[in-house]
């Protein structure tokens, strides 16, 4: 981000909006860091303030940054792709409001947040820029964008800022010809899903999967080659993000099961020691032994997964 910000000129005749996946429970120093990197002023976006050219707005921790016809909205909202703030809500809302005047940029990052939003920008006739995966520290997000986002430019990090400034200035001089969105090529489902996630968003079909966060039914939404999932509450996932969250949910369930079994075994042992009936005491000891065996089996699964992860890394 610092490299891009440093190459944006003072007085840029466009507003710049940035989303970084930051922890929700810690303050973000990103405005101060980026403010020292380049000539443009940088601040955390505030709900209800007006869009201003020549200003960089940063999504604050634990809030989605979205746009609504010249007004910035900063909302808590449901997590998307395991994140809040997430990139997709910003891209989708910008595409809906500003259509071909939007330039969407994806930089280095893990998983595939932003790919669906870039697709929305592409469908509305905007320009899509992606950092070259070979130039990225974490190439997953750029690669996902290349797969789904309808990319116009694939550039190394150092060339992205100058390209953005050039596109903005071309647009201002009315010498650039924007791609025209073709309404006939965009399904009603895809168009309706350009919106920020809401319970009434789009037309999907119930999937066989449940939401890892709230356990609600996930609705499957297909946008070209990209498949998304969204529950009625509004939690949204790409297939990759859903797989990651389900893996975490499964691991948490296994740890909880192991803890419950070990606690049950400990309680059965104590009861057996104070049992008046010798047969009851023996049954309790056998039950404690079985529960410890079950807990041990789960422990081996969990630690085997840790070893596999270490080998993969």
Structure description:
- This protein has 313 residues and is of the alpha/beta class.
- It has helices at residues 2-6, 30-35, 87-98, 115-123, 140-148, 157-172, 188-192, 239-273, 278-312, and strands at residues 16-18, 42-44, 56-58, 64-68, 71-75, 103-106, 127-131, 153-155, 205-210, 217-223, 226-231, 236-238.
- A four-stranded antiparallel sheet has the order 9-10-11-12.
- Helix 3 packs parallel to helix 4 (115-123) and helix 4 runs parallel beside helix 5 (140-148).
- Mean pLDDT is 85; it is low at 175-202.
**Oligomeric state of this protein:** single chain
User: Total number of helical segments?
Assistant: 9
Query: What is the β-strand count?
Result: 12
Through-space gap between termini: 26 Å
Estimate the global geometry from the Cα principal axes: elongated
- Biggest β-sheet: strands ordered side by side in the sheet: 9-10-11-12
Regions with pLDDT < 50 over 5+ consecutive residues? 175-202
Helix content: 40-55%
Instruction: Describe the main β-sheet briefly.
Output: 4 strands, antiparallel
Structural category: alpha/beta
Overall pLDDT metric: 85
Please trace the helix and strand order, writing H or E for each element. HEHEEEEHEHEHEHHEEEEHH
Task: Work out the strand percent.
Answer: 15-25%
């Amino acid at each position: 981000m610092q490299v891009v910000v440093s190459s944006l000129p003072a007085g840029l005749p466009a507003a710049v909006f940035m989303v970084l996946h930051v922890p929700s429970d810690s303050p973000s120093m990103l405005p101060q860091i980026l403010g020292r990197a380049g000539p443009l002023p940088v601040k955390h976006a505030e709900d209800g303030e007006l869009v201003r050219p020549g200003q960089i707005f940063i999504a604050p921790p634990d809030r989605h940054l979205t746009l609504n016809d010249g007004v910035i909205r900063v909302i808590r909202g449901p997590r998307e792709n395991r994140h809040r703030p997430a990139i997709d809500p910003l891209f989708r809302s910008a595409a809906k409001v500003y259509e071909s005047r939007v330039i969407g940029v994806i930089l280095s990052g893990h998983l595939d947040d932003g790919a669906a939003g870039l697709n929305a920008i592409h469908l509305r006739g905007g320009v899509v820029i992606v950092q070259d995966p070979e130039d990225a520290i974490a190439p997953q997000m750029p690669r996902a964008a290349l797969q789904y986002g309808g990319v116009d430019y694939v550039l190394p990090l150092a060339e992205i800022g100058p390209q953005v400034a050039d596109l903005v200035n071309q647009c201002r001089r009315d010498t650039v010809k924007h791609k025209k969105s073709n309404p006939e090529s965009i399904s009603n489902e895809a168009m309706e899903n350009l919106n920020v996630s809401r319970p009434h968003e789009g037309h999907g079909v119930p999937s066989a999967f449940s939401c890892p966060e709230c356990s609600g039914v996930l609705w499957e939404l297909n946008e070209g080659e990209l498949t998304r999932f969204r529950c009625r509450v509004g939690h949204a996932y790409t297939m990759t993000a859903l797989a990651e969250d389900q893996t975490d949910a499964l691991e948490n369930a296994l740890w909880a099961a192991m803890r419950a079994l070990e606690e049950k075994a400990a309680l059965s042992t104590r009861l057996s020691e104070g049992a008046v009936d010798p047969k009851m005491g023996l049954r309790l000891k056998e039950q404690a032994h079985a529960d410890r065996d079950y807990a041990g089996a789960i422990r081996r699964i969990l630690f085997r997964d840790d070893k596999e992860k270490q080998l993969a890394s």
